[in-house]
Amino acid sequence: MRTAKKTVPTLDLFRLAAVLLVVMNHTSPLADVSAMADFWLTRVLARVAVPFFLMTTGYFLSRNHWAGVGRQLKKLCLLYGVCILLYLPVNLYAGSFTGPADVLRKLLVDGTFYHLWYFPATILGIVIARWLSRLGLRVALPVAALLYLIGLGGDSYYGLVSQIPLLRTLYDGIFTLCGYTRNGLFFAPLFLLLGAAGRRWNQKLSLAGFFLSLAAMSAEGLWLHRMDVQRHDSMYLALPLCIVCLFSLLLGGNKGKSRKVREFSTAMYVLHPLCIVLVRGAAKLLGLGEMLIENSVLHFIVVLALSALLSAPCLLRLQKKPSPTARAWREVDLAALGHNAQVLRNTLAPGTELMAVVKAEAYGHGGAVTARTLQRAGVRAFAVACLAEGIALRKAGIRGTILILGYTSPEEAPLLTRWHLTQTVADIDHGRALAARGRRVHVHLALDTGMHRLGILAENRKEILEAFRLPNLVVDGVFSHLYVSDSLEAEDVAYTQEQLTLFYDTVAWLRTAGYDPGKVHIQSSYGLWNLPAQPCDYVRAGIALYGVRSDDAPVQRSLDLRPVLSIRARVASIRTVQAGESAGYGRVFQAEQETKLAVVTIGYADGLPRNLPQRGGQVLIQGRRCPMVGRMCMDQLLVDISDLSEVAPGDTVTIIGWDGGQVIRAEELAACCGTITNELLSRLGMRLPIVSG
Questions:
Q1: What is the per-residue DSSP string for 326-380?
Q2: In 44-198, where does DSSP find H-type helix?
Q3: Which whole-number Å values give the CA distances from 67 to 307, 396, 486, in the listed order?
Q4: SS3 of 659-683
Q5: Tens digits of per-residue pLDDT, 28-67?
Q6: CA distances from 324 to 64, 174, 228, 321 (A)
Q7: Helix or strand or coil: residue 235?
Q8: CB-side exposure of 140: number of CA atoms within 13 Å?
Q9: How far is the C-alpha of 268 from the C-alpha of 310, rounded, in Å?
């Protein structure tokens, strides 16, 4: 039985429907059947296509917190440049350019061919949407909606608003700069930001909303058409609601992505007007105008077929990537992660914020995907172990405070400044060396309250004051580490209290001496489990965020946390060994009777402890526990499946996580090997891809 989720990339697949509508818009397939039906199809229904493209762009850019804006703009500019060159012969033949001003306007705003307006509109729209997003969606969306309303007056409602002299003068001024208000200023920002909002409603509500808003837009479009007031017909009052409901429907069922479909639909969009030119030209040369031009249905079919044919190489060029679940993988439950973050927040004292510890690839959960999820959940402070991890988060679009808990060489001070990272001062010599580099560096001062790892001794007030006075160092925070807070032994509880007292006394002394300690923090995960809420600015939550404890030792407070990570692999082969035969390296496993073995596609190179089979390690197959046997290999392990009847190659094997009604917890696996979950999870190999959901 396989547990891998079926992926249906509904967002990407709908691109095909959207580009089909665009081709209809430019070929009018129902013109010979019914003028009114053709108007509804091409000037009402088809108007959802481009907003869908824009919403999809906004959605994916915002998922990365707009980190990919630069790459996306470069890609669009390059593609637009190719399109300009592709259609240049047609433009020159048709005499489309009337002068330098006209060329400039078409290049920057209107597009050099009738469908190419989309590229400058999207480029400018992304720039505006990104700028507005910095203000927050509550501000950005109303501003974008206002721009859309202004554009509406120059589009479908122009005949009405132009009756007001002042507004007519306004729009006449606008049209000296651009041919239409359907552009990157008035049209694109709203749909990009609606996509960034990524609202996913109940499917039934979304479906009902789509049909009702489409009906409203149809009535609106037909009424405006009869009134003959439309200067253009791309913008309707009901269009934003219609596309939001449609997008919610698609988003609700979206799983995965299809790059082939994206490339193919883009090629179709770019090439179909050229195909229209080719079909019309060929029809005139061959005397087939009545068949291929005047017959609107056949004209549409031929243009569509030729466009698809010319776009087909995109399907051949792109190589299929290996499935992330083909061999072995990590499953990260982002909903559980968000839930855990909220549970931990609820335990904090008023005014205390969560600092998410995402070092070691977020304890094996994937640093970027974890941090992005937490950032969307409202977390604004993160902690990592080293400079490289901090830079990786910035490149992934993570904003807010990123504190490096470990040592960074003073030679790397320019990188700390460049990437706006906050560095821990390991000791006074480290602080002096950082200051000597001449770069303004933001730091948190670690106080050694007994662990004797990093930090200035809390009793050494001379060195603490020196650290605050060092030039170029901006002390934004003071912290320490409770290193036996995971123990409920009376001696350890008393020692933790001594640490707390020393820390708070030092912080109070700093304030009395006239120094602002900045953000104060001392609690970590076990501080949350075993201590009351502390009067601090941050709590550094690491292992607790991921829904597991370091071990099964008792804790003071029970929290409703959910495991975030599962590890799964595949059955590669089924082998039967007879009594007395051995299997695996070193002949460690000797069959006492006929035994059926499954070869599982995971090993110690993926981060599993090599001694796990000898320590009682088990897996789940078909919801049943099966023991590991023999020595674990670098890439494979053996499992005894004698008690199972229907196991086949390709079946899913669960190393950590649920299968059916059974579960193997990370704590259980770590205990088998005499370690803690922190070590087990953080050493998971990078060749285990992450499947998130």
A1: SSEEEEE-HHHHHHHHHHHHHTSPTT-EEEEE-HHHHHHT-HHHHHHHHHHTT--
A2: 49-63, 69-94, 100-105, 118-133, 137-153, 158-161, 165-174, 188-197
A3: 33, 6, 38
A4: ECCEEECHHHHHHHCCCCHHHHHHC
A5: 999 989 999 999 999 999 999 999 999 999 988 887 667 6
A6: 20, 51, 55, 9
A7: coil
A8: 24
A9: 8
Widest pairwise Cα distance in the chain: 99
Nearest by Cα to 210 from 236, 242, 252 = 242
Q: What is the dihedral of CA 23, 25, 30, 34, to 10 degrees?
A: 180
- Output the six-digit token pair for 82: 């190719």
Q: Which helix (H) or strand (E) element contains residue 206?
A: helix 203-227
Q: Please tell me the pTM assigned to this model.
A: 0.63
Hey, which residues are catalytic here?
359, 585
Residue 5, pLDDT score = 43
The structural domains of the chain, with segments of one domain joined by +, span 1-28+258-321, 44-250, 333-546, 565-664
The fold for domain 565-664 equals: Lyase, Ornithine Decarboxylase; Chain A, domain 1 (2.40.37)
Q: Name the helix (H) or strand (E) containing 687.
A: none
Q: Which two tokens stand for residue 512?
A: 């009395």
User: By three-state DSSP, how is residue 641 classified?
Assistant: coil
**Whole-number Å distance between alpha carbons of 570 and 522:** 43
Closest to 353 in 3D by CA, of 120, 130, 519: 519
CB 395 within 8 A of CB 66: no
**Per-residue CA distances from 382 to 368, 374, 393, 396, 643 (Å):** 11, 9, 9, 13, 47
Task: Tell whether the model's pLDDT for residue 318 goes beyond 60.
Answer: no
**Residues forming beta bridges with residue 540, ordered by sequence position:** 355
Say how far apart CA 39 and CA 559 lie, in whole Å: 59
- Is the distance from CB of 265 to CB of 307 less than 8 angstroms? no
Please, which residues have CB within 8 angstroms of residue 287's CB and are 6 or more apart in sequence?
A: none
Residues in the chain: 693
- Whole-number Å distance between alpha carbons of 231 and 639: 71
Name the helix (H) or strand (E) containing 456: strand 456-457
- Residue 146: partners with Cβ closer than 8 Å, 6 or more residues away: none
Quote the tokens at residue 577. Answer: 């060994």
The string of pLDDT tens digits covering residues 171-190 is 999 999 999 999 999 999 99
Helix (H, G, I), strand (E, B) or coil at 688: coil
pLDDT category, 2, cuts 50, 70, 90?
very low
pLDDT of residue 450: 95
Tokens representing 270 are: 């770019």
- Report the alpha-carbon angle 520-524-525, nearest 5: 150
In this structure, whether the domain defined by 333-546 belongs to CATH 3.20.20.10 is answered with yes
Concatenating the DSSP letter of every residue in 115-156 gives TTTHHHHHHHHHHHHHHHHTT-HHHHHHHHHHHHHHHHHTTT
Q: What is the pLDDT of residue 384?
A: 98
Q: Provide mean pLDDT across the span 356-360.
A: 97
**Single-letter code of the amino acid located at 234:** S
Main-chain dihedrals φ then ψ at residue 233, nearest 5 degrees: -140, 45
Return the SS3 of 663. Answer: strand
Angle at 166 between CA 162 and CA 169, to 5 degrees: 70
- Compute the distance between CA of residue 369 and CA of residue 334 in angstroms, rounded to an integer: 9
